[in-house]
Amino acid sequence: MTYSVAVSGASGYAGGEILRLLAAHPDVEIRTVTAHSNAGQPLVAHQPHLRSLAHLTLQDTTPEVLAGHDIVFLALPHGQSGQYTDALGDTPLVIDAGADHRLTSSAEWDAFYGGSFHEPWTYGVPELLVGGGKGRDALRSATRIAAPGCNASTVSLSLAPGVAAGVIDPGDIVSVLAVGPSGAGKSLKTNLLASEILGSANPYAVGGTHRHIPEIRQALAAARPSTGSGPSTDSGPSTGSGTQDIRISFTPVLVPMSRGILATSTAPIVEGVSDAQIRQAWESAYGDETFVQLLPEGSFPRTADVLGANTALLGLAIDRAANRVTVVTAVDNLVKGTAGAAVQSMNIALGLPETRALSVNGVAP
Description:
- It contains ten helices and 16 strands.
- The chain has helices at residues 13-22, 63-66, 82-85, 106-112, 135-139, 150-165, 194-197, 213-223, 275-286, 335-350; strands spanning 3-8, 28-35, 58-60, 71-74, 93-96, 122-123, 129-130, 133-134, 144-146, 173-179, 202-203, 248-254, 261-268, 292-294, 312-319, 324-331.
């Protein structure tokens, strides 16, 4: 069976990456691409690297244009997806790459985003530990999927095994991320100009203000076996219970690379836990995974190793002097961080091979 697909926000970075992956997918036909201010223009005028899709023209983003497809991807700015998802009730599968359907807590949404709160959808991180299982368990029957925030899924994948196994204390997490500016989208912003970021490292959203913080806390709370709820459920809004004891200091830093995330996350070691127990927590969590890989002891990833790939590479260190575990994780924010996670989740929801149209191989140099 060939599934018809519409992609909104197709002129942006996330939309363009979704299209790049889907263009190589044998089970889908990209029929419709939409935009707002760029509607009416050829897709290749904004995504000149997508030569196989040169026949497509950007249409207006309206519920009427998006309706009538088997699958709709929404790659819109945060707060804009909900107005369309409400009108796509007859669409068999809808995948939102924005934040509108990620959070289960309306209070957290109000605190970090504001505007209308929309029901949480199944969280699109298949490898994430959830209540004794994994995120893919819920994705197999999903019809509505919330693709993750790139920073959020990177940190969550980094630390969820330790939280689930009870070998780290989630009450004192520190994460510092080097991130490429493509994660901020294509909109013209002074702080993202080349003259502002080349040759410089620039922190932003410092002091607990980044919007991905509640998403991380929600995911780590769901990783605990005793927590049967969280971002992977289709249930309605919750009050965010289970996250109160998860505290994270989260600092992203813009660096002059177009794409990529290198997240360094640390957490205290629980008293009495051995080094072998710590490493075993991560090995058992990801030992059978294709796209999330723990590197050999003493090895740590580079962002260059995951460029263009749907992989998250993790390096684990045990710092007994500081009594902390350090996890260094590299992802391509536009692939595993966003579009790759969305396509991988789509494959699972449709009963297709999970790896279809996705690669573990990066591009080098």
